[in-house]
Every structure is written in structure tokens, then in C-alpha cells.
UniProtKB/TrEMBL annotation:
It catalyses: N-acetyl-D-glucosamine + ATP = N-acetyl-D-glucosamine 6-phosphate + ADP + H(+). The gene is nagK. Pfam families: ROK. The keyword NADP does not apply. Its EC number is 2.7.1.59. It is an enzyme of class 2 (transferase). The keyword Amino-acid biosynthesis does not apply. PANTHER family: N-ACETYL-D-GLUCOSAMINE KINASE, ROK (REPRESSOR, ORF, KINASE) FAMILY. It comes from Sphingomonas jeddahensis. InterPro entries: ATPase_NBD, ROK. One of its GO terms (molecular function) is N-acetylglucosamine kinase activity. This is N-acetylglucosamine kinase.
Amino acid sequence: MRLCADIGGSFVDMGIVDASGDIRDRQRHPTPVGDWHALVTLFRDALERHGGIIGADTPVCISLAGVADPASGTITSSNTPSVHGRRFDDFGAALDRPVSIINDADAFALAEATLGAGRDHRRVFGIILGTGVGGGLVEDSTILVDAHGIGGEWGHGEILVDSPIAPGSVPVFECGCGRTGCLDTIGGARGMERLHAWLHDGAHATSVEITSRWIAGDAACRTTIEYYSRLLAGPIATFLNSFPATIVPVGGGLSNCEPLIELLDRRVRTGMLTRPVDQVVVRTELRDRAGLLGAALASTRSLLIEDVLPSQR
Ligand SMILES: [Zn+2]
């Protein structure tokens, strides 16, 4: 039994994960965005509630939006002030037990690679199309990151570059990472909305409205989705030509739109040198369980692989 949590920008998702991968006592709390002590209290309360079934030396497993840098033992690049810059040791000291911390997209990729859509694949590129864009690489059940915890971050890097001949012809926006023109600026739900406004004279529509109207045949939304899917599919295909993952599970809110995933898949396969016949870009199988299961797997992989995989395969 492990207390697992996914700390997002809006909510902290918590639950007790057992060796069979079941999640109990699932709770969702608003994220104490700027209040470290309130965040710690959420964990301490949960540990108190389950004190009888969670061992004192059992690590608390956390996935979060941000980079867990093993070299410095610090959380970096997080939009949540209560965790940004925190040392892993701060969590351990506050909770009086070991703590395992992992980036949320890496947790997603690890869970899908081990228990979900990628379980029969050696290399998995898990991507999140949520508020923004995230990604994680898994090979042989191991997350691939560099010494600072970076890997699979396809959402960042200056891909959209304005034309010197026709200024304003490319949607170049500032990214939270400090660069401009990152896929993160147009690839998630907010990005799709930003792209829609850019294409249609500032028109405001939510990502759910855009995808729904696209499916219903709306011409403006079709243009947005055409542009959106091409902007995303190219880099995904290029990535797969470089790192030979054979499956791309997609999580996050936009993965709920199955036709969007199918369109992305067709475009990605067209851009791949291997031209796969079978679907490569697929919807998450674990849905909203992936974050907590990935956090658990990052600390208890051997236990879960031994106990869960044989029965699931
Ligand atoms: Zn960026």
C-alpha cells in the first residue's frame, strides 16, 4: 500500500495504490498553489487516515507538473509556487518518510508502458495533451531522462519561427519556459484555443467547443483542427523517426476526443519513414488512473511488475 499523489496546477489527486494496481480512497483537493504548509497537511492527513496500512518506511509517491531534477534533488520548472524550487528532502522531512518524486508526463508514460496501451511495446513515447503539452520516454520499463530529469520534452524548443518575408504568418507565442514558438504554446487545450483565436480574428472558443464544432462540420473549426493536427503531427513523426518508439499513448483532456486522436495518428503515420499499418497514436488505456499508477511504479516497479503484469498479460 502506498500513498500516491499527482500534484497538478489546479488539483491534487490522491489515492492509496495497492500491489494489484487498485486505487482506494481517491480524493481530489484544490492545489494549495502558494502554501507549502497546506500542501504538506493534505499528505499528513492522508497518512494519518491510513496509518494502519501504510508502513512507516514506505515511500510517498508523487508525480507533479515540473521537473524532478535528481542531480540537484530539487523540483524545477513548475508553475506551482508551493513546490517550485523545493528540495525532495523537504517532502521527506515534512512527511517523516521516504518520498519518490517524478514528472507527471514521465509517470503517465511509465504507467501506459507498463500497464496500459504500451504494455506489449519495448519503447513507448507517452504524450499528454492537457492544459499544455508533456511527454515521457520509456524503454524496457525504464524512464529515459538525462542527469537533470529531462527527457521526452517535445513541447519545448523553438519550432514555430516567424517568416522574415511575411511577418505574422506563423503563430509565434511566448512560452512559459522562456522561449517563443514552442509546441506547448499551441499544442494543449489552451494552445488550441490560442491558435483558433489567431486564425479567426480573435474568436474565443474553448477546446471542447472547437473539437465539437469540428466534428459537427463547422468550417472555421475545421481550419483550426487542420492546422493544429499538422503542427503537432510533424514533430511527433520526426521524433519517432529519431527515437523508435512503436506506440504513442495520449493522455490529458484532449485525448477524450477520439476523432482528434485518429486524425493525429493518420498524420503521424504518414510522416514516419516506416509507414506503420497499425495505429501508433492511441488514446490512453489507464485514463485518469495513469498519474497515480505511474507515481507508484516509479518507486515500486518491481513489486507491481511481478504482481500485476503476469495477470494482465
Ligand atoms: Zn517552451
